Amino acid sequence: MFFKQVRRNAAKNRKGNGLFFGSLVIAIVAFYTLLSLGEQDVMRYLATIESDAVAKLLRLLPLVYGISLFFVFFLVYFACAYQTDSRRRELGLYLMLGMRRSRLFAMLFCETLWSSVISLVIGLPVALFLTEAISLATAKAVGLGIIGHCFSLSAKAILWTVCGFVLVQLLSMLIICIGLGRAEPADLLRAGDSKKQMILSGAKSTVFFVAGLGLLFTAYYLGIFRMRTLRPAVMLAVVLCGIFGTFFLYRGLGGFLGRCIRRRSPGAVGLWTFTARQVQENVLSQHKSLAVSSLLLLMALACISYGISMGMGRSVSSRSVDFSLFGTEEQIDTVLEKEGIREMVKDSYPMYLSAVKDGYFRGEEKEFDISGLKEALTAVEGSDNIIENLHIEYIISQSSYNRILKGMGKGEINLSEHETAIYTSLANEGDFGSVLEKALNKDASIGIDGTNYEILSTLYYDNVVADRAITIYLALIVPDGLFGKLAREPEAYCRNVRLYDAVVEDMGLMQAVRKMDAQLADAEIEYDSFLGGIGRNLFYTVAASYLTIYLGILFWLIANTVIGLKYLIGQRQTKRRYETLAMLGADMGAMYRSVKKQIRIYFSLVLCVALVSSAAAIFTMFTSFTKLPVGASISRVAALSAAALAVFVIIEILYIGVVRRTAGREIRRIEITDRR
Question: 3-class SS at 457?
Fold first, then answer.
């Protein structure tokens, strides 16, 4: 009988609180997806070429898991508190009928465990399906292909998901039961009354509201216009102004809404004034929850935006060369003619890259003149450090670099007799690339042996070897004849190799490169492989994108659940007002429309502040903290960001719909016995 009652109560709770139950399932999916990261195809592959970096990332996962448990605990606690509050009379009746408190608490704990089991039974298969889909999609996107996919089921991830999830459930219920243990049956049987509010005077609410706006605008200004220096004092000011501004804004928002209501109330009809006053009371009593939810949504949007843009930006890193072979011409030709290698090689060519002869580009000879390039840099803001360290040590032959561009399907460089171009492998380092590009658009030039050479306005940065074996601060791309005159070592630096497109399409990029890598390893020749670049690129994608998107979704989930549950708790506490409205003649349809409008306004008050703050935060993040990699497709990143925003809007509409249906059920349950 006891366990039958437990199952019946748990089923009723799940049916009556779909918002909470759905959030628990999503939390389970998030936990397993995070904890099984090390078992996914890309991470297993990365471990073979970037083992140290992957090991550090995996050691970081327990910390992220702990942070996740901390936030999920509050989500579960609020939801359990809402469920328990809705059952106050039921629990009080159990005590009135003679049930011991120990048995009552045991029943609540068993209900929690049973709900946890049901959530896990649903959530774990969904999580497994999602991780396999992510693993397949990632393997396809990065070139592993389906043949590189291996089904994985992480027992360790399942164990920690179950343990963490059940722990937060039981801990939340323990804290709630401690409060119930002090309550008398009469207190539980009494309908919950709305809590007393600390009413601010009109002057104080105005001060808080104006101060909140002022602090938020100060945070926006500092972030957008003063954060580029990355000074700790400015960063601290932005964070403090943003946090206190949000809390102050919501603290004074109730008074602001009250003044708006008073101005419009004389001409209002129907339940407009009642609806507005309900919203105002929710803001007054829940201003801290609104502020916390708004900040969580801000963090969620910032994390998701960063993860999408950085992940896609790095994933489009250009593939210029598959392999670079080092050795004599005869050695390299012998290797490339071997069976198994010859069938895979589409193109090979010598890469002419050299340091310049002693004296050039260092100001040691009269023929050297970089004043034109310095003058162009001087006209660009933020170029002081570049000017101080300006030097050009390397040159690249035009024909070699054109072979790279041709293999990538890009337009070749056409240099006239007195033209040159700038190359750097550091284009992605901070503002370095953007500053150089701006300077090159200002008619930059350089003098060589008394002849003035105009510098093309395009900055070139595609890899000159397979794995960036050398770091080039600045190099000149020059005509082949000038290369022979200036090069310290005019012979080829290496032989670049590119694989057949058909081989890459059939096997997948990473599988094809790995096969070629194995063939070259047996040939005992020194070489660089595109695998190394892929490994670092994918590691940064996972580290920068996967974890930030994960945290963003978690913050998003918690913020929405807290907003919805706080509203439903407030509605239950004011249930008698709706009963009074019904007694006064208000029909159920009008009250239901009032509730729908309250929910819409309540969510909008949180979302509007969060969206404005997140727009400023995202702009600050991509102008101060990080940059999209040079060559990243802005249109692709923008399309994905737009898709993410569309998903955000859809999820918000779904959340609002769930809260609206739950609130509507509460309205329909109102029974008026004394109604004529």
Answer: strand
Taking only the tens place, the pLDDT of each residue in 428-455 is 666 777 788 888 888 888 888 778 889 9
Q: Which residues of 393-415 are buried (b: 16+ CB within 10 A; e: fewer)?
A: bbbbbbebbbbbeebeeeeebeb
Cβ pair 309, 637 in contact under 8 A = yes
Of 609, 57, 77, 615, nearest to 291 by C-alpha is 609
Distance separating alpha carbons of residues 274 and 265, to the nearest angstrom? 10
Question: Any idea of the CA torsion for 476, 477, 482, 486, to the nearest 10 degrees?
Answer: 40
Structural domain of residue 12, as residue ranges? Answer: 1-190
Q: Is residue 628 part of a domain?
A: no
> How many independent structural domains does the chain possess?
1
Closest CA to 421 of 490, 479, 356, 473: 479
Band the pLDDT of 213: cuts 50, 70, 90.
very high
Residue 172 lies in a domain: yes
Using pLDDT thresholds of 50, 70 and 90, give the confidence band for residue 108. Answer: confident
Tell me, yes or no, whether 288 lies in a domain. Answer: no
Report in angstroms the alpha-carbon separations of 69 from 30, 73, 156: 11, 6, 17
pLDDT of residue 366: 43
Range in 220-229, 440-449, 534-543 the model is least confident about: 534-543
Answer yes or no: is 445 within a domain: no
